[in-house]
Amino acid sequence: MGNRESILVVDDDLDFLKVIRHILEARGYRVATASSASEAISLARKRFYHVAVLDISLPDTDGTELLSALLDIHPDITAIMLTGYSSLQNAMQSLNRGAFAYLEKPLDPEHLLSVINRGLEKQRLVVENRRLIGDMEQHNREISVLLAVSQAVSQSLDLGQIIDSALARVIDATPAGAAWVQLVEDGRLVLTGHRGLTGEMAAALNVTAVNEGVLGQISRQGIPLTLSRAAMYSQPTLVPLAEDGYQSCVGILLTIAGEHIGVLGVAARTYPSFSKTELNLLAAIGRELSIAVQNARLYEEASSARALRELDAMRTEFLATVSHELRSPLAVIKGSASSLLQPDVRFDEKTWREFLESIDKDADTLSRLVEELLMMSRLEAGALEIKREWCQPAAMVEPVRDRLKKLAPKHKLGIDIPRDLPRINVDGGRIGEVLTNLVENAVKYSGEGSPITVTASGNGSEVTFSVADRGRGIPEELHQKVFNRFFQVDSDKDGRGRGTGLGLAICRGIIDAHGGRMWVESKPGSGAIFKFSLPTGGGEER
Ligand code: ADP
């Protein structure tokens, strides 16, 4: 007789109560009795009863009212109504209000016991059914959370975004009020994403040594690790959370192939906070996050390998260009000098002079190429010296005016820099080099006799220079590329007087070093306008 179900019997007939108690206790039930509705209600408020046996006529209230009150308190209670006289109407009313059965007095004890047994059996089925449905719903919720996280992992490589959406799900689907991810970087744990943390909490978690703190502890004790509020006080990184009233915190280790790569942390304001199923869900989310981190790392490696390959290809191309560029003038110099040195050949003065002029011109080309290469490497190393001085744009251009004119003897070169522009704090020599390069290009890429115009305009914050030609122009898709190192439009790669594709990269490097910007406006066929702006520095100059 192992029955330990509890039964509440309510009847105003005290003798009846005694008898019933005796019968039920003899069958192993725990029995409580009440002689009025109010007494029954106060007993029910204190604990759950599996079965209530209620007399339908009570001194203080109608038995059916008491039935409703008890069902309000314990919806699962199995209620059996007792009627002193056969009244179909009363019985129906009780059943309508949720009673399991009704019995007529005088009571047949065996009948009562068998009804109680059936009622309990039904109750067990209802409770079990509800538990199964609850489990299934919980399972569904977990699956949908995991599905959402793994979808994010498989559809995106943006680690920050994946972590953020996973943390949002953690907070939605578990009692966590705060959740965060710390990843191992250079031997330290760095806070990579968080939800629900205040600035102070995030700062405390931000950068910590890997072997100390939670990760160290999780690695030693296995996963997941649950810390109570008292334990949180002993972790400096978690103190702000404890002080804010968080009662517990769980750390899930993130691993890739056995390597510890970080921690998924969650904190809740309740204790105990996370059920076993919720901990399993957190562990599964942790596994998805580990995959996301691995994907992002692989992608990064692949991208940098690709970038390296591209750089390598560019270098090879550059070496080919440079050696070609070096070889042509060197061949001329070597050929001219060897000819002049032939002991048995005498050249007339005109030929002799032509050889010397070739040597001179190609030596200039060589030295310019070397200059450009050196300049590029200085710019890339951030080592270009810039001697800034406050100057008037028009005055700054004056020293290069003649040089520019000489570059364009067969073009109509106009230089028109207004004298009332704001002053700029620049290295005039370097800006002169930029203008020289742009005018050289304008000469190279536009027809003889066509105009080339150098102008400038200004506003409060910057002065913009422009060099415009009426040459072949540059297609829009190349507007950015022409500034790349070694970039040359294919048709310019070979032929007379070609450059190295370094000129514009150097110009932009110089302008960048001044805090300015450079761009081109052009439509093929209608010429190109190269522009660069330099900040005026507002009122800082004086
Ligand atoms: P390069 O030494 O070949 O002139 P740059 O870096 O100065 O190298 O220029 C890169 C490429 O941009 C050139 O090869 C040319 O195709 C194009 N380019 C530069 N300036 C002009 C211009 N004014 N008009 C048309 N194309 C130009």
Report on this structure.
50% of the residues lie in helices and 20% in strands. With 542 residues, the chain is α/β, with parallel strands linked by helices. It folds into 3 domains: 6-128, Response regulator (Rossmann fold), CATH 3.40.50; 156-302, Beta-Lactamase (2-Layer Sandwich), CATH 3.30.450; 389-539, Histidine kinase-like ATPase, C-terminal domain (Heat Shock Protein 90, 2-Layer Sandwich), CATH 3.30.565. The strands form 4 sheets. Strands 8-7-6-11-10-9 form a 6-stranded antiparallel β-sheet, with helices on both faces. A 5-stranded parallel β-sheet has the order 2-1-3-4-5, sandwiched between helices. Helix 5 (109-155) runs parallel beside helix 11, helix 12 crosses helix 15 (503-513) and helix 14 runs antiparallel to helix 15 (503-513). The structure holds adenosine-5'-diphosphate.
CATH structural class of the largest domain: Alpha Beta
Q: Round the Cα radius of gyration to an integer and report it.
A: 45 Å
Q: End-to-end distance, in Å? A: 103 Å
Query: Mean pLDDT across all residues, rounded?
Result: 87
Main beta sheet, described? 6 strands, antiparallel
E-strand count: 18
**Number of contiguous helices:** 15
**Would you tell me the structural class of the helices and strands?**
alpha/beta
